[in-house]
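User: Please predict structures.

Assistant: First:
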Amino acid sequence: MQASHLFDIRETFNRQQILICFNGPFSRSIIEELGNAVRSYMESQSIAKTAILDVFSVFVEQTQNVRNYLADKAAEGNGASELDSGTVVIARQDDHYVVTCGNVVEAADAAGLAARLDVLSGLDKAGLRAIYKEQMRKPRSETGGSAGLGLIDMARKASAPLEYSVHAIDDRFAFFSLRVAV
């Protein structure tokens, strides 16, 4: 990148009210540092504590989902360089904060995740609460090794339905992104 392009990036960030943007590997320490930076910024702006906690929670859930997915694929011996990092953006939009996170995934995984999100987007707050309680009662072995509550919890915290995008890269990979307005 040329040094002169940095001004253009800065102007785009200002126009879109982007607080933080990161692209690269999501290590535990990076997630922690970025989360602390966002929390500190929001506290300095006298944002309501519940909003800060919701944004922070959604940020951590999304970035950990990416980190865990990438770790699982590495453990499978996938070795694909496409599966080595993620992107996260936190921005202010009208009266909300928006956390958008994405990464390269295997196309089959994107389809399954999209189907699950479609189900969640069709539920109201009572439906989300019911499915959350149902998921809590399931044994971990039925949920694929995780409690499976992260997406449901994000949908419960969201001020609008979760939005996702799947951008096909080739026959094997897609870029999956999830947008959560809090």
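Second:
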Amino acid sequence: MGQVHKLSQAAFDRLNEEYSLLTTTGRIDIARKIETARELGDLSENGDYHAAKEEQGKMEGRIAHISSILENAEIVDDAAGGDAVREGSVVSIKYVGDDEVERYLVGSIEERIEDAEVASPTSPLGEALLGSEIGQVVKYEAPGGLLEVKVVAID
């Protein structure tokens, strides 16, 4: 069994829909592009053919990635309104010594939202934030050294 991917029901449904779309109409569309490009002649110098094959490779890679996530998905409850940071929480933090507030979603990149960066729960920042509460200062080891952040809010 692969790595467990904790997802909200909304993210799971969105990925399932994307998978269905890519494996049906997506594959049909790319096959048409390849066939049209083949009709143009010599494949060794056919830019349209090579572009279509590259697009096909990227699409197949995305299909494999989504398939792996869906096979190993664990649906988690919505984390909104909790007292402590957990997977799925959106947390506002300030680095000690800095006044700028930054927002992070602690969870999978597939959960990403528009106004927050993503911190994987297995990353140093994500690990440090898990279980922390509003007002708490947590430390984590970054490539540049030890950093401290204060939890300002949990959404």
